[in-house]
């Protein structure tokens, strides 16, 4: 869904709208790496995303900044949800999803 992806990116990068973003972040150090994670959420309605995606309530952005073996890595991911989520709730849902994924590959 390229148009949806682009609309979500624009919502977060639009300075006037970005002031509305709720944020949650934390620093994690384990297994020889340091990772900073920041999660932001916006309500979808002001961006007219619900016109095409009627159940869309929350859009989210996660930024991962990691230092591992002296290398710096930055990754940004975007999320959509029909649930009304805070930034901390988005963080918990994303982390629990990846915990399930990791268990499947063991």
TrEMBL record:
<protein>
    <submittedName>
        <fullName>ISAs1 family transposase</fullName>
    </submittedName>
</protein>
<dbReference type="InterPro" id="IPR051698">
    <property type="entry name" value="Transposase_11-like"/>
</dbReference>
<dbReference type="InterPro" id="IPR047647">
    <property type="entry name" value="ISAs1_transpos"/>
</dbReference>
């Amino acid at each position: 869904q390229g148009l949806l992806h682009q609309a979500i990116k624009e919502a977060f990068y639009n300075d006037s709208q970005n002031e509305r973003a709720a944020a949650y972040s934390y620093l994690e150090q384990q297994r020889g790496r340091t990772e900073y994670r920041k999660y932001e959420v916006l309500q979808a309605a002001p961006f007219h995303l619900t016109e095409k995606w009627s159940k869309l309530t929350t859009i989210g952005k996660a930024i991962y900044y990691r230092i591992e073996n002296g290398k710096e890595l930055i990754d940004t991911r975007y999320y959509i949800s029909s649930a009304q989520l805070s930034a901390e709730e988005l963080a918990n849902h994303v982390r629990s999803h990846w915990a399930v994924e990791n268990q499947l590959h063991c």
